[in-house]
Amino acid sequence: MRTYNPTPADSYTNAMTLWRLVLGLLWILLPAGAQNSLLPLTILHSNDLHAHLVPDNQDRGGFARLATAVKREKANCSACIYLNAGDLVQGTPVSTIFYGVPVYEIGNLLGVDVATLGNHEFDYGWRRTLEFQRIAKYPMLSANVVDSAGKSITGLPYVIKTLGGIRVGIIGVILENLVGSMVTAPQVGEYKVIPVVETVRKYAAELRDRTDIIVVLGHIRDREEVEAILRDVPEVAVVVAGHNHRSYPNMMNVGGRVAVLIDAYGTELGRLDLQVDRATKKAASAEWKKITIDKSFAPAPDVEQLVSAWEAKVTKVVDTPIGESRKRYTSRAELRPLLEKAMAEETGADFAWINLGNIRDELPEGKLLARHIWNILPFDNYLVIGKFKGSQLPKAITDRYPVEPDREYTVTTTDFTMSNQASPDQLSSKGLVFPNTGPLERDAVINWIKTRKIVP
């Protein structure tokens, strides 16, 4: 009979096998939570898409490309969710003419898992906001827009999604100054907006024992609301923000709790990769990147087909030549005096005034179409005209135009500004009466360019 004499290698292998068995037994005996305390979670996110269905004049964005990017990123993560932080509508002709409905129909093809309301979801009236909820095939959240009984306008202040073994609580909120931030007449009906941080604190306490991590999906203000949530509501691990159209240069971090926000108009997709510690209900680590949506993403055929169908319905109205621009106007501050000049000359005023938030896109160099002005001025705001002595005019005007106290001036602004004179970024002075109504602001600017033919 042959005698077996183990080699050193055999002894090592046997020892390792025994050690693995011991570890396996210890793992089985550990509480379930300790076995998988750290688990991966990926949050894809966008905000302020504003109905920019097609790529911009720099060949960025487009809903069909965005859909491809979302699908690609979802294929490369084990537990993934795509959140949209509000303002899906309002910003291009197809949304303005059809009151946002096509945008929600197309939005269903983007792969959104959960969304919150933005302030511009109310531009067409609160009843249209309810219609958007009926069209959307994903949950729409709103914890702090409530009726007299305290019920959410969407019926969903939050949702709980289980992804890769992680119970994710998502609370949806909108900026507290909803009415003052709107660029058309506010139409919220009998609903009211309750404070953001107070609302988040309430629902975070309710979700604490039912979830492994809490995310706030907020169409809210950066310092007043995003930072306050991270600072004052420790149960919240992540804020996915919207409303500001400019991306954070870096992920906001307050004591290990983070916030992210990307550029508007679908030119970027955000990806936040977390290691969720289910024991502490916090993110043990967080890595964030911004993905540029450009021609490297082939358009999703189903989205492209639906976008083309809707764009065909508006092209006869908006894709008509109106003139030419000798330069590209890229910023609101640069465009503002040009638009005010057009408004004043079209109404025979001494000067005009608009708030920067009224300006929503850039003006390209070269051939101009009516569409370009629709994109810059998508809101159905009318011009209003009034006469005032220089001494009556607010600082917002006198800081930019030299006036004499006793001289009478004709001033043009928008009906929105007239109705919100005390709101931030408005005239900051109540009591000015503009008795005469002119054309739509957008139509006045289009006609001004048609008359001049060349924009300087």
What this model shows, in words?
The protein has 456 residues and is of the alpha/beta class. The chain has two domains: 33-308, Purple Acid Phosphatase, chain A, domain 2, CATH 3.60.21; 319-455, Alpha-Beta Complex (5'-nucleotidase,  domain 2), CATH 3.90.780. The protein has helices at residues 8-29, 32-35, 63-74, 93-97, 101-107, 126-135, 178-181, 196-207, 222-232, 301-318, 332-347, 370-376, 395-398, 415-419, 441-452, and strands spanning 38-46, 80-84, 114-116, 140-141, 145-146, 158-163, 166-174, 192-193, 213-219, 236-242, 252-254, 257-260, 268-277, 282-292, 321-325, 351-352, 366-369, 382-389, 408-414, 436-440, 454-455. The strands form five sheets. Strands 4-3-2-1-13-14 form a six-stranded mixed beta sheet. Strands 6-7-9-10-12-11 form a six-stranded mixed beta sheet, with helices on one face. A four-stranded mixed beta sheet has the order 16-19-18-20. β6 and β7 form a beta hairpin. α3 runs antiparallel to α10 (301-318), α8 (196-207) packs parallel to α9 and α11 crosses α15. The chain is globular, with a radius of gyration of 27 Å.
Short key terms for the protein model shown above:
5'-nucleotidase,  domain 2, alpha/beta, six-stranded mixed β-sheet, disordered N terminus, 21 strands, globular, Purple Acid Phosphatase, chain A, domain 2, 15 helices
